[in-house]
Write a structure and sequence with these properties.
4Fe-4S, metal-binding, iron-sulfur, Helical_ferredxn, alpha/beta, Rossmann fold, binds iron/sulfur cluster, 361 residues, 20 helices, 4-stranded parallel β-sheet, metal ion binding
């Protein structure tokens, strides 16, 4: 029997995945992790899904919170990815999802942005080398929407004695292709990008975006092969530079909450350790559990209302702490900022790199 179907068969309807899924929460359990995986049998039997069932499969950010709690270890996010792959092959994925995949494959960014402005975050005040064995990858959300995160990251690296190079032809990491089951295209994409990065002669790539970091570090080896360069998460490097005494943060005496990045929850001690070095106290927002912002994997473009409602679960916590919320994911930041503007809510959130820069100046 098919392994995934066998796994689905083990579901005991315990409801644990409903309780942690933010999409389930804001839809009163209309769309749950369990309801999504229960559609696999129909898809494998070649039965037509109705629109509500298709919506269910695409109403997931693939945050992984459900995988974390399932007592019988059903690979829920892998099954959702497989269901999306089948729907895409049959031309049944949402039109916006197909469009974003095409944008990435043809133009190198989800929003089909002008590639010539991707590196416009580079300013004279930043020390960058034209060539180096250390490269910095900003990623789409930073390069096109939140360039202050790239500036503060480079300034921190410079203060710590590191002068990286920018990637001349940087492009999207391709996470959206992977989340939506476009794995054959993602394989070719990963091959091209890894070979391009290797052709630059770099030994290390520093990534600021948790999504980019995860894709370069974990997904490219599965899709293509282990790259010849090391992939480093910017906050890990900041932490190391503090430990080595190359960065000496001043105490800021603030109290914040943290908007964790689902993609790298396993590394969520690192931002807390950096904040503690800055004298910043943390009040936990979601008990340190994976809790999605409601944006990724196509939920924002395909289901804007549900995506906004999910974002509000974070935004309503902004006021819980005197000095707001700290984020370390540029896509969470971007999504939450959009929703704050749309709902006239105050955006009381900053990226951790801006706070660290303030503390070392
Ligand atoms: S991955 Fe996240 S959003 Fe998707 S079903 Fe699981 S908990 Fe819900
Ligand atoms: S947590 Fe696992 S076993 Fe429980 S309802 Fe969800 S999928 Fe089924």
């Amino acid at each position: 029997m098919d392994e995934d179907l066998l796994a689905v068969d083990y579901c005991i309807d315990c409801g644990k995945c409903y309780d942690v899924c933010h999409i389930s929460k804001v839809t009163d359990n209309k769309y749950t992790p369990r309801s999504k995986i229960m559609l696999l049998q129909k898809l494998l039997d070649g039965d037509e899904l109705d629109q509500e069932e298709i919506n269910d499969i695409y109403l997931s950010t693939r945050c992984g919170a459900c995988d974390d709690v399932c007592p019988v270890n059903i690979p829920i996010t892998d099954i959702i990815q497989r269901e999306r792959a089948i729907l895409a092959q049959h031309g049944k994925e949402p039109a916006r999802t197909s469009q974003i995949c095409r944008n990435i494959l043809e133009a190198g960014s989800p929003g089909r942005k002008d590639a010539s402005i991707r590196n416009s975050w580079i300013k004279d005040e930043l020390e960058l080398n034209d060539s180096s064995d250390v490269a910095y990858m900003a990623g789409c959300w930073i390069a096109f929407a939140h360039q202050d995160i790239a500036s503060s990251t480079i300034k921190i690296l410079n203060a710590g004695g590191i002068t990286p190079m920018a990637i001349p032809e940087e492009k999207c990491c391709g996470l959206f292709l992977i989340d939506n089951g476009h794995l054959e295209e993602a394989k070719e994409y990963a091959k091209e990008y890894v070979e391009y990065l290797e052709s630059l002669g770099i030994k290390k790539v520093i990534a600021s975006c948790p999504g980019c970091y995860l894709v370069l570090k974990e997904e490219y080896p599965k899709l293509f092969r282990e790259p010849e360069f090391e992939v480093i998460y910017s906050l890990s490097l900041f932490d190391q530079l503090i430990d080595e005494g190359k960065l000496i943060p001043k105490k800021l005496n603030k109290t914040v909450s943290i908007r964790d990045a689902c993609a790298i929850m396993e590394m969520s001690d690192i931002p807390r350790k950096i904040l503690s070095e800055m004298g910043v106290e943390v009040r936990e927002m979601f008990d340190r559990k994976r809790a999605c912002c409601g944006g990724p994997a196509g939920v924002k473009p395909n289901f804007p209302e549900i995506s906004s409602k999910t974002a509000m679960l974070t935004i309503e916590h902004f006021k819980d702490t005197p000095d707001g919320t700290v984020s370390y994911c540029p896509f969470c930041y971007h999504h939450l900022e959009n929703v704050c503007q749309e709902k006239n809510e105050e955006m009381d959130m900053r990226d951790i790199s801006l706070l660290l820069l303030e503390s070392i100046l």
